[in-house]
Amino acid sequence: MNADRILIVEDEAELGELVRDYLTVEGYQVLLADNGEEGMQLFHQEQPILVVLDIMLPGIDGTEVCRRIREESTIPILMMSAKQRDTDKIIGLGIGADDYITKPFSPGELVARIKAHIRRYKHFSGQKQDNGIVSYGDLKLDKNRFEVYVKEKKVDLTAKEFQLLYILVSNKGQVYTKEQLYEQVWGYSHIGDVNTVTVYIRKIREKIENDSSRPEYIQTIWGIGYRLNDAL
């Protein structure tokens, strides 16, 4: 059996068990909680590699669980909700979630997303083939520690924010479309919303730029995508 453990926090028993069964078939060890308190307990006890988290939960809701996990870990967090308003998606991503899926959904699509997130998380945090340090201007990124420094001051980025920035800094001057960045960081094409990239770029700018409304590092190439400014 795959040693990777996945935590599902979902109060709808049938849905939680369905997702668990699909993931078990794929060889994952699945932990199931039906409320936020139990979810946090299992997170601390079992150290899962990924969390699937419903927004509407009894007791501690999913947004608060996401915040607490993100304070301690960079593991992928995939949020679920029955609400389809775009504001809910932005809220979910804004608290540190890596992805978002709206109910009802295909279990096969969810499994595909989970596998892609785990594959990329392992790629960015796994084997240390070099010192993993990339620097540009006042930016320094440590791939092995998932740490970012601006003018020697540590800046807290989520795993997906780090991965996006690392790609741009490692390939300064190269223009990437939203679709290319989405594929490289989220790991699947034609699934989900590529505008997620826009949300993440905005959040990265807020953390690393002196003035996020006039970014110096990440440039928008209108009608195409983004690139790291190579003229600094």
UniProtKB/TrEMBL annotation:
It is found in: Cytoplasm. Residues 131-230 bind DNA. Residues 131-230 form the OmpR/PhoB-type domain. Gene3D superfamilies: 3.40.50.2300, 6.10.250.690, Winged helix-like DNA-binding domain superfamily/Winged helix DNA-binding domain. One of its GO terms (molecular function) is DNA binding. The keyword Transcription regulation applies. This is DNA-binding response regulator, OmpR family, contains REC and winged-helix (WHTH) domain. The lineage of its organism: Bacteria, Bacillati, Bacillota, Bacilli, Bacillales.
